[in-house]
Design goal:
mainly alpha
Length: about 140
């Protein structure tokens, strides 16, 4: 690095991004938990009250939760990209300069996000939400 100030700024940005990535993981997990809990309760109410309107509310709720889950994931992926570019910058400076790093730091620099990360996440989460939606739609056609 040309100066210590640049190093400190990049290191702080990397730390902030890593913290945001972790926080957004927790948020995404919470969204999924609330979605499944709410839909389970609405299915129970629909069966208990013999009222299919609760299933319609469930469909709307799942769509709402899926939207927010994907929005949070998009923000998280922007932090992953920025974190990856900072790591590449550090790698270029330290590893290409012939500096010796501890094994732990070298492994951090060697790791990089998979190219198909967004695709894999999108389809796995999409399948979760679409399966719930299909279940709710099918239940609407069953006599409750």
């Amino acid at each position: 690095m040309e100066n210590d100030r640049e190093y400190e700024i990049l290191l702080k940005l990397l730390e902030i991004d890593q913290n945001r990535i972790s926080a957004l993981d927790v948020t995404s997990f919470t969204i999924k938990g609330w979605a499944i809990t709410l839909v389970s309760a609405l299915i129970g109410f629909a069966i208990q009250q013999h009222d299919k309107r609760f299933l319609g509310i469930g469909i709307a709720a799942i769509t709402f939760f899926a939207y927010f889950d994907f929005r949070y994931r998009k923000v998280q992926l922007s932090h992953v990209e920025r974190s990856s570019s900072i790591q590449k910058h550090f790698k270029q400076y330290y590893l290409d300069q012939g500096s010796s790093l501890s094994g732990e730091l070298e492994n951090i620099f060697k790791s990089s996000p998979r190219k198909d990360f967004w695709t894999q996440y999108f389809f796995s989460v999409f399948l979760l939400y679409i399966c719930i939606e299909i279940t709710l739609i099918l239940l609407m056609f069953v006599t409750i």
